[in-house]
Write a structure and sequence with these properties.
Elements lengths: L1 E8 L2 H10 L9 E3 L6 E10 L1 H11 L8 E11 L3 E8 L1 H15 L9 E7 L4 H12 L4 E6 L1 E8 L6 E9 L3
Antiparallel strand pairs: 1-3, 1-8, 2-6, 4-5, 4-7, 5-6, 8-9
Length: about 180
């Protein structure tokens, strides 16, 4: 069994910029930052799958190869309550929603709660007020970074005591 999700992986230079401008300013006390190498946009979390189904999943998702790549912009800090700190997709967020919806359609899955974002950190011990203060401080950074979405990746997530380890199982390239 593999713990699998479908994602847009972020180019290294964009990860570096996110880390320098935003992540390094997130307090380590009370929060768990997402490691720089793990920054991504989850399109769909699938959970534990048999290896045979991962190959079938890749075959089904090959249908999105006909879709055109597109540029997105990451900006606008936000949160899911007092639990998760994220940076949102501002330019072409609708294209990511359409990509997510097409993946769900191909797999026969319904997922109404999708939100295009990159998780930066999870709140482990901060009070709601402390968490809100962190969010407000990061909003002052006025971060903005754009990149071209050229592929969608099928990823495996292995949970460890020091955090998740991600491995790319397959890459589905979009047309250019």
């Amino acid at each position: 069994m593999k713990r699998v999700f479908v994602a847009i992986n972020i180019p290294e230079q964009v990860k570096e910029h996110i880390w320098k401008v935003l992540s390094e300013k997130i307090p380590e006390r009370g929060m768990k930052r997402v490691e720089k190498k793990n920054l991504h946009i989850t399109l769909l979390f699938l959970g534990h799958l048999h290896e045979s189904y991962v190959r079938e999943l890749e075959e089904k998702l090959r249908a999105i190869e006909t879709l055109r790549g597109f540029e997105i912009t990451l900006s606008s800090i936000g949160s899911f309550g007092s639990r998760v700190l994220w940076i949102g997709v501002t330019k072409n967020a609708q294209k990511i929603v359409e990509l997510h919806d097409e993946i769900c359609r191909l797999l026969g899955i319904s997922d109404e709660r999708f939100s295009a974002h990159v998780t930066l950190a999870r709140n482990k011990k901060l009070s709601g007020r402390e968490f809100a203060s962190v969010v407000e401080q990061l909003k002052k950074e006025r971060f903005e970074e754009s990149f071209l979405v050229k592929s969608v990746d099928i990823m495996e997530s292995t949970l460890t005591s020091s955090g998740p380890i991600y491995e790319k199982l397959a890459e589905i390239r979009l047309s250019v």
